[in-house]
Amino acid sequence: KASSAASVVYKCQMFGRNIRRALVLLKITLEQDSESTKEMLKTYYSYSQGNVKKEDLDKANKQLNVLSKELGFGFLTFMPFAPITIPLLVKLAKKYEIDIVPEWFKDSLNK
């Protein structure tokens, strides 16, 4: 039984490390100040404020799917509720003390 408990602990630690790596990779990707990333983040922010057009949201969801596939986050591409996914990822990142929201985006909100 002791080895079984140690195995579970080890698997949990590995899972945590994999999540941390994935979040850091996402942070690096979002920090790239590309036009498509800017638009996607602005759209999700507008969505969180209750002010977004359906076609803009569809475009942002497609961009998130592209990023997800590029980063190997295939599981995100199956989630039809991407506007919910971003806030969940932000919360998860905070749990691991990783700020995935780019500074350039935060600065643009203060203007």
Structural features, described:
The chain is mostly helical. The chain contains six helices and no strands. It has helices spanning 2-31, 35-48, 54-71, 74-77, 82-95, 103-109. Helix 2 packs across helix 3 (54-71). It is elongated. The mean pLDDT is 76.
Strand content: under 5%
> What's the pLDDT, averaged over the residues?
76
Give the total of beta strands: 0
Show unreliable segments: none
Number of DSSP helical runs: 6
> Shape, please?
elongated
Whole-number radius of gyration? 16 Å
Distance between the termini: 58 Å
| Topology pattern, helix = H, strand = E | HHHHHH
Helix content: over 70%
Descriptive keywords:
about 110 residues; about 80% helix; mainly alpha; elongated; 6 helices
In short:
The chain has helices at residues 2-31, 35-48, 54-71, 74-77, 82-95, 103-109.
Give me the secondary-structure topology.
Layout: H1 2-31, H2 35-48, H3 54-71, H4 74-77, H5 82-95, H6 103-109
Helix pairs in contact: 2-3
